[in-house]
Amino acid sequence: MPDTIRTRFAPSPTGYMHIGNLHTALFEWLYARRYEGQFVLRIEDTDEARHTPEAVGVIYEGLRWLGIDWDEGPDVGGPYGPYVQSERVELYRSYLGKLLEQGLAYECYCTPEELDQRREMMRAQGLPPRYDGRCRTLTATQKAEYCSAGQPPCIRFAAAETGTTVVHDLIQGEVPFENALMGDPVIGKTSGFPTYHFAVVVDDQLQEALGFPTPVYAHLPLILGEDKSKLSKRHGAVSVVDYAEKGFLPEAMFNFLALLGWSPGSTEEILSREEIISRFSLEACGSSPSVFDMAKAEWMNSEYMKTMPGEQLARRLLPLLQKEGLFEENPTEERLTWLAQVADLMKERAPLLTTFITWARYFFTDDYEYDEKARNKWLTKPATPATLHALAERLQVLTDWTSDTIEAEVRALAEDRGVGAGKVIHPCRSAVTGTTVGPSLFHLLELLPQETIIRRLHRAEVEFAEDRAAD
Q1: Which residues are CB-contacts of 463 (< 8 A; sequence separation ≥ 6)?
Q2: How far apart are CA 250 and CA 72, in angstroms?
Q3: Which residues contact residue 405 at a Cβ distance below 8 angstroms, ignoring those fewer than 6 apart?
Q4: In the chain, where the domains are located
Q5: Among 233, 306, 323, 373, the one annotated catalytic
Q6: I want to staple 14 with a disulfide (CB 3.0 to 4.6 A). Which of 50, 113, 154, 232 is the partner?
């Protein structure tokens, strides 16, 4: 174990933040926090054509959503800045110059079209497509001819052509690469901008050719979809924002991602952030790919929701409800207390925050549909309209609107009509919520205004009496 642990996460701001990126960042952060090291954020914007300022904001948002902070980075500074690669171009150019002077790099004038043609020829011959080193031996006269024709060169690294390069990896073990299969990579673009492969080398001090010390590598395996292929959009959500919008709690996603490729040394699955940090080690990380099981992720999220206090859960729900137009923008404390009660009542059955938008919609609006089971099993029964009417009449005169008094009236009505209590409870639930499933009916009714319940009972009574008359 080195004296000082420094890990870095260096995403490219070219689009959305993939859940695989977040997984890598989490493990780097856990390792740094476990051993009281530094976690560094660097923005690798060497892809001039694709990077966008908006994507940088997405990176910050995704990390902060999961609760990952950084000790050094573009927005917090640090002793090794700047932490944005486009702001370090002169440094990279100086090292490119050193490699050229030492004969470890060379100028290449091959056009993209020529390179594509040669790669196709290699494929046709059954050879791995790689750069053939054509410009390695250009004479000064040939270079001058290219320059006079206005053809700018890129810069390639003169890689070893024989032998084997072995990467010593803490997770994957000894990983050999045959040098003859690699080709000479481009390290400087024709625009004068460094490529990612070169800039990352300089920033992380990796390369033997530059005389830099080699860091310790630990390559995490891929995260796969449930069909065992690489996780992608065809598996559903892959962006961090997607999971947030789906209604996952960051605490649950933190726990879930930590267990993808790492074992806590026990069969426990619900672990706090502090427990995960204290137990984390690279020795407990696996070398095989992990499968992102969406059902397992939702189960874990539901477990976190069940234990979350109603007041806290309500604060998480509020922005989602407001976005859907189901809750006022400036609620009173009384309304927030009521929302916490709804959250407490529903959380046992809700796998995601967004579940409240669908399953609990009837708490927030009269605009809900009667599902097929509610219609066919209860609301279209011949006796239902009269049952709903009678129940509305009884509930309308209640002066004490509590679950106990509501339950007493429902059961009294069933007894008066000579039927089981279910013959009143189920039509009532179907009329008031539009569905046949949910939490305790009497506690549910208590949380809704008395006049709302009466209105909904009469509405269903009229609608399904009319439906029968039409039939």
Answers
A1: none
A2: 23
A3: 398
A4: 87-210, 309-356, 366-470
A5: 233
A6: 50
What does the alpha-carbon distance between residue 9 and residue 18 come to, in Å, rounded to a whole number?
Answer: 13
Q: What are the two backbone dihedrals, phi and then psi, of residue 352, each rounded to the nearest 5 degrees? A: -135, 160
3-state secondary structure of 43: strand
Four-point Cα dihedral 188, 191, 196, 198, nearest 10: 20
Q: Quick one: pLDDT at residue 236?
A: 64
Q: Which residues contact 42 (CB under 8 A, 6 or more apart)?
A: 8, 9, 10, 73, 74, 83, 84, 85, 203
Within 8 A by CB and 6+ apart from 124, the residues are none
pLDDT of residue 467: 63
- Residue 279 is predicted with a pLDDT of 97
Dist CA 377 CA 367 (whole Å) = 21
- Pairing assessment for the beta strands 6-9 and 38-41 based on DSSP bridges: parallel
Question: pTM for this structure?
Answer: 0.88
CA of 253: how far to CAs of 70, 244, 332, in Å?
Answer: 19, 9, 31
CATH 3.40.50.360, domain 87-210, yes or no: no
Q: What confidence score (pLDDT) does residue 210 get?
A: 83
Q: 123 to each of 118, 127, 162, 178, 263, how far by Cα in Å?
A: 9, 5, 21, 18, 42
230 is catalytic: no
Give pLDDT < 50 ranges for the chain: none
Contact status, residue 36 vs residue 5, Cβ threshold 8 Å:
yes
Amino acid at 266: S
> What is the distance between the alpha carbons of residues 132 and 126, in angstroms, rounded to a whole number?
15
Q: Which of 276, 262, 266 is nearest to 171 (CA)?
A: 262
As a whole number of Å, the end-to-end CA separation of the chain is: 79
388: Cβ–Cβ under 8 A, 6 or more apart, which residues? Answer: 427, 428, 431, 457, 458, 460, 461
Burial code (b: 16+ CB inside 10 Å, e: under 16) for 228-264 equals eeebeeebebbbbebbbebbbbbbbbbbbbbbbbbeb
* Topology annotation, domain 309-356: Helicase, Ruva Protein; domain 3 (1.10.8)
Instruction: Output the CA–CA distances (angstroms, integers) from residue 211 to 45, 70, 92, 240, 418, in the order listed.
Output: 25, 28, 15, 38, 92
SS3 262: strand
**β-strand 154-157 against 186-188: which pairing, if any?**
antiparallel
Helix/strand/coil percentages in the chain, nearest 5: 50, 10, 40
CATH placement of domain 366-470: 1.10.10.350
Question: What is the pLDDT, as a whole number, of residue 1?
Answer: 54
Same fold flag, 87-210 and 366-470:
no
The confidence score (pLDDT) of residue 208 equals 74
In the numeric block, which tokens belong to residue 330?
């400036």
